[in-house]
Amino acid sequence: MLSKKTQYAFRALVHLAENYGKEPVKISTISIQQKIPLKFLEHILNDLKKADMLESKKGKGGGYRLSVSPKNLNLATVIRIINGPIALLPCVSLNFYEKCVDCDEETCGVRKMMLIARDATLKVLEKKTLYDMMNE
Amino acid sequence: MLSKKTQYAFRALVHLAENYGKEPVKISTISIQQKIPLKFLEHILNDLKKADMLESKKGKGGGYRLSVSPKNLNLATVIRIINGPIALLPCVSLNFYEKCVDCDEETCGVRKMMLIARDATLKVLEKKTLYDMMNE
DNA sequence: ATGTTATCCTATAAAATTAGTAGGCTTTTA
DNA sequence: TAAAAGCCTACTAATTTTATAGGATAACAT
Fold first, then answer.
1. pLDDT of B17 over the 90 cut
2. How far apart are CA B74 and CA B131, in angstroms?
3. Which chain A residues have a beta carbon less than 8 Å from that of B15?
4. What is the pLDDT of residues A28-61, one digit of tens each?
5. Protein-contacted bases of chain D (C-beta within 7 A)
6. pLDDT per residue over B43-77, tens digit each?
7. Residue in A109, A130, A106 with CA at minimum distance from that of residue A54
8. Which protein residues have a C-beta closer than 7 A to any atom of strand C?
9. C-alpha distance from residue B123 to each of A8, A56, A119, A120, B119 (Å)
10. Which of A36, A118, B15, B112 is deepest in the core (most CB within 10 A)?
């Protein structure tokens, strides 16, 4: 399951996607409208910024904006930044790989199945974008 | 990500699958051969038993055995018993549904995408079985 | 220059979940 | 009736998640 933080991140990002091309949006505005704890949201947006998904501007008239078009921001990328691995096991993770203890990767059947599951999930999450999350 | 407990469960179940039709297997045997903490494994096997996935027998010559063929035990079922929901959000879970706060399910774009992801993942996990996890 | 507005940064704390242990109870078999 | 096994309840430790607090820094307006 995705953490609450990740849910918040998606809600905030959709909000920003709806303001793409417009003036930057303040944390406090997103916090109120999306009902996300302000200080927690601060961290979330900062994480996304560090991953170059957002741009920010300080001072009056400042705030956050998407640094790329909603159509070019896929869901897998967001999840990896905020939530971590998408795969069900570390040993089948593309971005957060860790070797299993006591398991031969060549023959491990658990791993083999989790690889297939991962590919199925990723196929969706890498194709779908923030734009797909916005209301038509 | 699946919990360590779920990884242990899969290892134990594959072990039992390889002994399907034979004598029951003792917890201690599985614990040693699969390198799973014995007392922890006790809980795991008990959970699986309560879900009617395993049968047990006490006393000498006792132990655990699968109550159905490995070909009829799909991975989604195991994950739900030990790990919980497969869906990425509670509001798209078939077996552990919970309503999101502050979200209209009809229009929520996040939910819509998570539904698609869930279906893709489930399609694999419900089709693949313990048998598929065993070595050919 | 200086105050205001906003993000940025670091530390801390509370709550929840996960992982594991301990120890005695019950059932089956020899 | 003793042994060998699972069964049951409670507890503890570690880790992760979900925040909160408070000041530092940057941009802008007057």
1. yes
2. 9
3. none
4. 999 999 999 999 999 999 999 999 999 999 999 9
5. 3-10, 17-22, 25-29
6. 999 999 999 999 999 999 999 999 999 999 999 99
7. A130
8. A 26-28, 42-43, 45-46, 49, 56-64; B 3-6, 8, 37-40, 42-43, 57-62, 84
9. 27, 40, 12, 8, 6
10. A36
